[in-house]
């Protein structure tokens, strides 16, 4: 049985009338050498009556994969929302297929099921794979080394191209959204967009975003201890060796015993079998440590370090599959630890084929679907492009992180006094924990308008329930989603849609 294509998607896998994503496709250049618009003959109307057929885009040097899903409400008046997944180096098609797209991939890798909490119920959503090299995006020169500034500029140009090709959306309200490393992507992009009067920028929202490396690391240790993950021996040693005068430095502390303690914390949080993206969810594939690779792959071997009680595994779980070393470290927490740097250097020198697979996630269904020849053909994916993977190791390992904090970007946006900004966090995520982002928002020192309070979602027969907590400052809010992990719309879809709707409509949370 082949996977359903955009021309024959069936709700819940039944024999109902066909439904489809109304895609924007990357296409061929027009007769004049520029981008072309193409209605896409393969598209049929759906029972959900999404308003427009697939269209095509082409960029000159970098072919950036973009999928555009028009609003089920009213495309002409609905806002345009850009969505970026993070990494760096991970595909935004994951957001489309597993988080808040109109159809979600099912475990069989074949069935797409209608999502009653899709964000395109109320918005036109543009999913952009960024940077080049991620997913189906590629660069003609096959150079995938990039940095925060280049990616912001490239994403800005991709947005301008979109509105150039589809000027009917130019007047619509524009919101920039994303999660994880989009905590860097989105504010750096927003600073560029705010300077372009041709785009109707109204606000930005970042979910479980990496806003500050220092605050993320420092808060993670507290999060781990107060969630029962660190024993009293380790906690006491952390207090002794990493803290002084009532202040702790868990980010770039050079004291040897502190570094050894932080190696243990890193191992517990990221490679012991706990799900770093949702503390209370199971780890896909199981929590048992996987067999390390052969001795010729030292990158997969436990490493002794200074005062650590026992050899510490690499920050990520590392395994060997056929001729490939599979690693799971995206490089966003405890980046200053010496063992981390040694591990990266060993990995780069190994000369091995390496695949990046985020920990405790199962990407088989999305991968099987997007790599099916029928689907690739229907999506107009060039035959020469490699298979789709959730994350690209080369993009990630070569990526230059130029910013340690997004403070200056947010202050610049806030100084305009006209954008609606939301930072939201699932409160059981450890990759970008809620405490660090709350500290970050507090550090911006904006005028408090609404004290921290519960926010509610109406669950019908169950009545209104507390969905999390929110506090609002002038033009910026911080909000938690109770019981959600890193991918909030996956874990709490109704709460996520409710939050998204209130954000777009400038309603109280």
From TrEMBL:
SUPFAM superfamilies: alpha/beta-Hydrolases. InterPro entries: AB_hydrolase_fold, Peptidase_S10, Ser_caboxypep_his_AS, Ser_caboxypep_ser_AS. Coiled coil: none annotated. Its EC number is 3.4.16.-. It comes from the Eukaryota. PROSITE patterns: CARBOXYPEPT_SER_HIS (PS00560), CARBOXYPEPT_SER_SER (PS00131). GO terms for biological process: negative regulation of chaperone-mediated autophagy; proteolysis; regulation of protein stability. Residues 1-73 are annotated as: Disordered. One of its GO terms (molecular function) is serine-type carboxypeptidase activity. Keywords: Carboxypeptidase, Hydrolase, Protease. Pfam families: Peptidase_S10. Residues 1-11, 56-73 have a biased composition (Basic and acidic residues). Protective protein appears to be essential for both the activity of beta-galactosidase and neuraminidase, it associates with these enzymes and exerts a protective function necessary for their stability and activity. This protein is also a carboxypeptidase and can deamidate tachykinins. Belongs to the peptidase S10 family. Heterodimer of a 32 kDa chain and a 20 kDa chain; disulfide-linked. PANTHER family: LYSOSOMAL PROTECTIVE PROTEIN (PTHR11802:SF502), SERINE PROTEASE FAMILY S10 SERINE CARBOXYPEPTIDASE (PTHR11802). This is Carboxypeptidase. The gene is CTSA.
């Amino acid at each position: 049985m082949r996977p359903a294509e955009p021309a024959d998607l069936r709700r819940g896998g039944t024999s109902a009338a066909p439904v489809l994503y109304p895609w924007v496709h990357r296409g061929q250049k027009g007769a004049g050498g520029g981008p072309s618009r193409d209605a896409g003959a393969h598209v049929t109307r759906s029972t959900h009556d999404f308003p427009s057929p697939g269209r095509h885009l082409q960029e000159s040097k970098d072919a950036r994969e973009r999928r555009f899903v028009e609003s089920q409400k009213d495309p002409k008046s609905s806002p345009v929302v850009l969505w970026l997944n993070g990494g760096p180096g991970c595909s935004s098609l994951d957001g489309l297929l597993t988080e808040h797209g109109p159809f979600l991939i099912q475990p069989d890798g074949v069935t797409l099921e209608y999502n009653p909490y899709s964000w395109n119920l109320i918005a036109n959503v543009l999913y952009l794979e960024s940077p080049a090299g991620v997913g189906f995006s590629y660069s003609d020169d096959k150079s995938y080394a990039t940095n925060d500034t280049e990616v912001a500029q490239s994403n800005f140009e991709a947005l301008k191209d979109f509105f150039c090709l589809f000027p009917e959306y130019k007047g619509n309200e524009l919101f920039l959204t994303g999660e994880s490393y989009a905590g860097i992507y989105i504010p750096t992009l927003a600073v560029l967009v705010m300077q372009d009067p041709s785009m109707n920028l109204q606000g930005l929202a970042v979910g479980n975003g990496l806003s500050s490396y220092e605050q993320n690391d420092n808060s993670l240790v507290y999060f781990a201890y107060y969630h029962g993950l660190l024993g009293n021996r380790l906690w006491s040693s952390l207090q002794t060796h990493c803290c002084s005068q009532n202040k702790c430095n868990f980010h770039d502390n050079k004291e040897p015993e502190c570094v050894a303690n932080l190696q243990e914390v890193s191992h517990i949080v990221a490679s012991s079998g706990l799900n770093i993206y949702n503390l209370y969810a199971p780890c896909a594939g199981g929590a048992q440590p996987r067999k390390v690779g052969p001795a010729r792959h030292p990158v997969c071997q436990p490493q002794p370090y200074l005062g650590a009680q026992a050899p510490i595994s690499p920050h990520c779980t590392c395994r060997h599959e056929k001729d490939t070393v599979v690693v799971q470290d995206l490089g966003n927490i405890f980046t200053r630890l010496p063992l981390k740097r040694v591990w990266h250097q060993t990995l780069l020198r190994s000369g091995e084929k390496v695949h990046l697979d985020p920990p405790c996630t199962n990407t088989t269904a999305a991968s099987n679907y997007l790599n099916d020849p029928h689907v690739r053909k229907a999506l107009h994916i060039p035959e020469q492009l490699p298979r789709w993977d959730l994350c690209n190791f080369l993009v990630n390992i070569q990526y230059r992180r130029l910013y340690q904090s997004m403070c200056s970007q947010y202050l610049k946006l806030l100084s305009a006094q006209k954008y609606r900004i939301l930072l939201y966090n699932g409160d059981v995520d450890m990759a970008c924990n809620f405490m660090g982002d709350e500290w970050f928002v507090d550090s911006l020192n904006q005028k408090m308008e609404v004290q921290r309070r519960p926010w509610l979602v109406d669950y019908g027969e169950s009545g209104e329930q507390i969905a999390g907590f929110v506090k609002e400052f002038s033009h910026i809010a911080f909000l938690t989603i109770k019981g959600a992990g890193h991918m909030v719309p996956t874990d709490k879809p109704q709460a996520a849609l409710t939050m998204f709707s209130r954000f777009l409509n400038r309603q109280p949370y």
